[in-house]
């Protein structure tokens, strides 16, 4: 079996009830072996094993820990040269995921930030801008290892911290536009 083009890590705790929908969206990537799908799970929910199996994902059980620690523990147990995590509804098509991963893989950009929810209509009308939340990131394993991985002490701030360290190292970052996230 050939090595996957990338590894897609989905955090079961962060995905919550959206886990089956997230996996249904990306399951075809595991079937054609483009991506290794890994469910990072510290929830101790016995249903996650069946959900992972149905969608061709590997289920990696971990003890309860912050997001940074969960990712830092899981990533060395994967093999893809491009890493995408934790997704959390930030993609709406496999085609867009493959395009982003390809751009990172060939060095067009060092990492692509997958933005979280956008401000609501009312906030936009009032001109209120808040910093873009980070729902996920796509980067090469090389950059991840060069930075020393995720800070194991950080939970929700783990991805923001990783992006800040990428910027400090001079990585070429890009924010995925809504049309890049899916169609």
TrEMBL record:
Protein name: Glycosyltransferase
